[in-house]
Design a protein that fits this description.
This protein has two domains: 2-108, P-loop containing nucleotide triphosphate hydrolases (Rossmann fold, 3-Layer(aba) Sandwich); 120-179, no CATH class. It is mainly alpha-helical. The protein has a three-stranded parallel beta sheet. The protein contains ten helices and three strands, in the order αβααβααβααααα. The two termini are 28 Å apart. Mean pLDDT is 86; it is low at 1-5.
Length: 182
């Protein structure tokens, strides 16, 4: 959100496996992805976030198999420059960078950034930054997490652990952490 505000991005599109799964047929998924890019081209500065790319292409380790039509749609659109006078920032996330490298998706992006798991000190900082945690809870949570944690999982757990006051509470967080098997 901060990126959008500081750079006057007028259009943002968020695509993930969840919002594409309801479309059913692979042609509908390809059309939805294509429409997101066409809509982005209409604005002078746009952002497209493609979350969990391996799930969007329906990658299955057994086999291995994936949806080639969706993969090809992504590759073509990622490599296509926006129209003259338009700027498009495309961000993608994955937990399987080696797979995306093998499939040629990494090469379609200008920059690939590895985001390491968060250590104790960083966990408190992220909780402070997202702003839904008292300082004492940020520190207690970071001390209670025994091993490195991913940003996405931390944010999900923080959301799950919100109390009635809308703030992430230590006991709730640690209970949620235990519930998800961490």
């Amino acid at each position: 959100m901060n990126l959008m505000l500081t750079h006057s991005i007028r259009l943002a599109s968020f695509k993930n496996a969840h919002n594409l799964a309801s479309l059913g047929a692979e042609s509908s998924k390809c059309q939805a992805i294509h429409k997101a890019f066409l809509d982005a081209y209409k604005s002078p500065l746009s952002l497209i976030l493609i979350d969990d790319i391996e799930r969007i292409i329906e990658y299955i380790r057994v086999g291995p198999r994936f949806n080639n039509a969706v993969l090809q749609t992504l590759l073509v659109l990622l490599k296509k420059p926006p129209p003259e006078g338009r700027k498009l920032l495309i961000m993608g996330t994955t937990s399987m960078p080696h797979l995306l490298d093998d499939l040629g998706i990494i090469q379609a992006f200008s920059v690939a950034q590895n985001v390491p798991l968060l250590e104790q000190k960083e966990i408190a900082g992220v909780l402070r930054e997202i702003g839904n945690c008292e300082e004492k809870d940020c520190l207690a949570i970071s001390e209670g997490v025994g091993k490195p944690l991913g940003v996405k999982q931390l944010m999900l757990l923080a959301e799950m652990a919100k109390g009635e006051n809308g703030k992430t509470e230590t006991n709730n967080f640690l209970e949620c952490l235990h519930t998800v098997g961490y």
